[in-house]
Write a structure and sequence with these properties.
360 residues, alpha+beta, Beta Polymerase, domain 2, Methane Monooxygenase Hydroxylase, Chain G, domain 1, 2 domains, seven-stranded mixed sheet, 7 strands, 51% helix, rod-shaped
């Protein structure tokens, strides 16, 4: 039997690769086969350089010559490069483990020389899923590691850097990390809005009673919205942690923009909660319509059965094979029996009509 929902695409909340009880900081080889690519952007207010880096050691040449260096790694397949970069920036083993195991929830942690952030990018091809983006924010650099996927959610930030749009090239690494997070969060909006459009398309057929294939679709939408909500809530917590006084690496100027990102997440959560409530209302409406149709069928069968019970009784009485029964020898006995049946049926139908059973 084919299930109405394809369970093959229903991802588990997380996928651990290390066995239970492993030492903290243990990193297992990722299943991903995508080769890691290192893209580098080094910039200042008046300087800009962009390059594809083949060897991780080549990054050192850019770190001291520009105000900010953004090293972006796409794909987790090359663990040797990742190990080189984590050693170069002297990252904690727990950070390396979290980067290499992309099942982390969104979070913000501060270490002595850097801040470590995790955000999750949303995808809808072929089913809703999320990818991890890890960021290490230092004094003059950002190291970002992205789980490979079909879409580039960070290209708008690169465009702003190339064209020097806004104040992004005049700000520090904390602002650049905000810009990356904001780009990730903004890409949730069209995804959430697409679910609203799908619910609008379902509404009219559902109201018309065509519910056979709609309920699995409503359940699928509700499940995807729950996944989005489960990923958005930790983002809000992480951003509010960055705005706390304990994160000294983020300036007051950047915290103003972080409040805007927090507001965007609140808008998304409100929309998700609204659409999930609509899904619940649609399911309730479907069950109400199904119950109403069943009641109509039962009412029709009840009327038919109630009318024919006394008629069957009359026919049964006069169908008995007794030789001495009143009316058997009457000339108009057959017509009288039929007339009695018609009268009984008419009285019952009139009574049902007076009770409103034939209305609506």
């Amino acid at each position: 039997m084919k299930l109405p929902i394809d369970l093959h695409f229903l991802r588990r909340p997380f996928e651990r690769r290390t066995p239970p009880g492993s030492a903290p900081g243990t990193a297992a080889q990722p299943d991903e086969e995508v080769h890691s690519h290192i893209h580098l952007i080094a910039f200042g207010p008046n300087d800009f350089e962009e390059a594809e880096v083949r060897d991780a050691d080549d990054v050192r040449a850019y770190l001291g010559n520009y105000d900010i260096t953004w090293i972006h790694v796409h794909g987790l397949g090359d663990t040797s490069r990742l190990r080189q970069l984590t050693s170069m920036f002297d990252l904690h083993p727990l950070v390396y483990e979290d980067i290499l195991h992309p099942h982390q929830r969104a979070k913000a942690e501060e270490y002595e020389d850097y801040a470590f952030l995790v955000v999750r990018m949303v995808e809808v091809d072929p089913r809703l899923d999320t990818r991890q983006l890890s960021m290490v924010v230092g004094d003059n650099y950002i190291l970002s590691v992205e789980e490979a996927g079909p879409h580039d959610r960070l290209e708008p930030v690169r465009t702003r850097l190339r064209k020097s749009i806004g104040k992004i090239r005049q700000m520090g690494p904390d602002y650049l990390s905000y810009a990356l997070m904001d780009s990730v969060i903004d890409h949730y909006f069209p995804v959430v809005e697409s679910f609203g459009d799908r619910l609008d398309e379902i509404d009219d057929p559902l109201a018309a009673g065509y519910t056979t294939n709609l309920i699995p679709e409503i359940q699928r939408i509700s499940s995807d919205l729950l996944t989005i909500r489960r990923n958005l809530l930790p983002h809000r917590e992480a951003i509010r942690n960055l705005m706390a006084l304990s994160f000294t690496r983020y300036t007051d100027n950047t915290c103003v923009f972080l409040r805007d990102a927090d507001d965007h997440i609140s808008q998304l959560l409100d929309a998700v909660d609204t659409y999930r409530q609509i899904c619940s209302d649609m399911r309730d409406f479907h069950f109400a319509m199904t119950s109403q149709r069943a009641n109509e069928v039962m009412k029709t069968l009840t009327i038919i059965a109630t009318v024919f019970i006394p008629l069957s009784f009359i026919a049964g009485v006069y169908g008995m094979n007794f030789s001495d029964m009143p009316g058997l020898n009457s000339q108009y006995g057959y017509e009288a029996c039929l007339g009695l049946m018609v009268c009984v049926a008419g009285v019952l139908m009139g009574w049902f009509y007076s009770r409103g059973w034939f209305r609506g």
